[in-house]
Every structure is written in structure tokens, then in C-alpha cells.
Amino acid sequence: MDEHVRHAVQVPATTANLGPGYDAFGAAVDLHLLVATAPRADGPRVSARGEGAVELSDGEDNLVWTSLLAACERFGWQVPDVDLVVDNPIPLARGLGSSSAAIVAGIALARALAGADAGLVRRDHAVGDVDLVDLAADLEGHPDNVAPALHGGMVAAATTDDGRRVVRTLPPPVTSRPLLLVPEQRQVTSEARAVLPEQLPRADVAEQAARAGHVLAGMAGLWPVDPDLAGDRLHEPTRLAVMAASGALVTALRAHGHHAWLSGAGPTVAVALPAGDAEASAARVAELPEALGFRALLHSWDRQGVRACADGGCAVAGLAGGCSDCPLARLA
Length: 332
Prior knowledge:
Blueprint: E1 7-16, E2 25-39, E3 46-50, H1 63-75, E4 82-88, H2 98-114, H3 129-140, H4 143-151, E5 154-159, E6 165-170, E7 176-183, H5 189-194, H6 202-219, H7 236-242, H8 244-255, E8 259-262, E9 269-274, H9 278-285, H10 287-291, E10 294-298, E11 307-310, H11 327-330
Parallel strand pairs: 3-4
Antiparallel strand pairs: 1-2, 1-11, 2-4, 2-5, 5-6, 7-9, 7-10, 8-9
């Protein structure tokens, strides 16, 4: 492990559930957390800028660092003696996967620092993508954000009867672009989970499954998503009841024919806009959220997922480098 070589990772934000895919569906968005290593110096372990820079820990309990340590522990890699430099544009506690991005960044950095040979081997078998998803999901609690942050695109995750996670990745839809409507107020995920019902009537369970299939196929481009089927029966009713502005926004957007959903645990609302008319549609859609105190961020789907680069190398263009979107250059 050469700790003098600078490594950087780029991890996308994510939007989970997509409506009725609670804890199962997610998609990556091209809003990227950047983290790079630096030689260890006296002082804080982590130096941060961007969203949450003044409130996130700069010490050994920083989530990126603890995730790096968790990866080293699980896979038998040496713990590097490095500092971390973080640039975070992802709003915190808004339902856009900020904690998942931090977890994935730590795991990806640990693998990059372990090197091409050691980084592919753990104590008992080769380390593959399934191992990384399992570790990230164990740290986060569920895979719907960490899986698209790792893989990019859109994912559907499920668990077998014996507890094995199965994650399948789809290319992001070329027919749409995500508009993120982000309020100032935050929502802690644990609090948003606390309001969920313990049980659902059988009819609601059946309808939930039907809507999940409809939305997943629609996002995959097999048919247009019907806005009246975009909502679910499990997490949105109770959550939107306590997030009045987000609830009003979702209701209004669906009434105007848009596929809109509560992004993760909220309070951000996401909308899939037609790709060919996204800018004009975003301008029209933005009038309502602005009145409710939301800012509108038009993005594209992220196709690559986490990307790790080292000095003199490039995860996209090869060892010679040359990528126009180099995380190392953006962190310089």
C-alpha cells in the first residue's frame, strides 16, 4: 500500500423508492461527493467543504473514515495512515443519499488504497461487487441508496428467504431526467421510519406490488409511468402527512401528470421529466415548489456509480488519464 499516492473517489447522490419501491428501488444522480486522500498531518483526520462542512465530524468518527475502517476490517486490508479531503454538494438529511455516498466513498477508498492485487482479495475469497454492496448495506441498513451509489444507473434489490441480498442493475432511463425539489428543512431517516405502519391490509400489499412492477418497468422504458400509480401504500401516506409541504407538492405534481415521488425518507421530492424538454419542463414545474420554499435542481442520471482514481491514472480513460471530469482535478 503506497500511502504517498493520492487517491480520489467520486460518488453519486441517489434517490430511493421511486414511489412504491420502498427499500428496494433506487437510482443514481449526477450530483457527486468527492473525497481524496492526503498525507497524514497533525490535526483533524478530515477536512471538508460544501454542504454540512461546519457540522460534520472532522475526527475519527467521520462516516467516510469509519466506513473505510469497516472495509479494511472486513476484507483484511491494512488501515492507511492518511487524511481525507471532502467536497460535498449533496444536501444533508434531505433524502438524497448523503450518508450512503459517504459510506460508499470510504469503502471505495479502502479498496483503492489496498491496491490492484490486495484490493481484490480478502481473507477467504476474492472481493467482488456483491461483497461491497453487502458491507455498504450493513452499514447503512438497506441497499436502495448504496447499491446505485456503487453501480450507477437504477437498481432493484431484494432479499432471499435465507437472507442473501440480490441486487440487479438497469441502465438509467434515457427518456427522462431527474428534477430534485429540495426544501430547507431536514428529515432524519430514523424519525421518518418511526411513523411507518407496522402492518398493511392485504389489499394494500397487493396494490403495492402491482404499482412497484408498473413503476419499475416504466422507469426501464417499457411504458410511460402513470402518475396515478406513482404513489405507494406503505411509506408515503404517513410520511407525507407529517411533511405537509412535501405532501402538497407531490399531490400537485401528480395531478399535473408528472411522475413524482418522495425521495428516500424525504423531505426532497423528485420528478422524472421528459429528457427532450427537461429545461422547459423544469422551469414550469419550479413555480409551485418555489412558492412552498423548495429549490429546484435539474440533473441527469448517473451511469457510472462510484469512480476511484489515483495520481497518474484514470478510472475512465485508463492509466494515461485524460478524463475531462477528473475528481482529483476537481479537488485540487
